[in-house]
Amino acid sequence: MKANNNTQFRHAILVRDWLTERFLNIRGVKLIDIGYITDPKEPGRKVVIRIHVDSEETLKSIKFPESAMGIPVQVLVSDIKLE
What we know:
The protein is α+β, with helices and mostly antiparallel strands and 83 residues long.
């Protein structure tokens, strides 16, 4: 999904919210947000949903989708802390 369309970005927000309801209450899942990726095959940026987890073990133990409602999903091991 290209990032230059407000309707598509609003769709990404709905998808992020849906994934948040599904995964954020699972131990080890720290944050779900919207980001951008670049695809070397296509110009511009694409919207992606990013799921941040606390460890490789969490990453391996939970089956996360590769995409949701047409939007790619990335799962990242992150050291997210509240400040």
